[in-house]
Design brief:
The protein is an all-beta fold. About 0% of the residues lie in helices and about 30% in strands. It contains no helices and four strands. It has strands at about 10, 25-30, 35-40, 50. Strands 1-2-3-4 form a four-stranded antiparallel β-sheet, with no helix packed on it. The two termini are about 20 Å apart.
Amino acid sequence: MKIAELHQGDFFTKKPIENPKESQVWIRGEYDRSQKKYECQNFADANRYCYLKRDAEVYTDLVF
């Protein structure tokens, strides 16, 4: 699934992990027009962010 297909606040992982740890789960944030990427926040650490392009593959099939 692409990051652009998720809604704001949806949980995902960057790798196909069925039972991820809290540090492996990310939350999709807002779209940053200046960078043309989606802001993503780590579930376990509120100060940890990453930016992903629209076509980045993410995985939502997880038990959390």
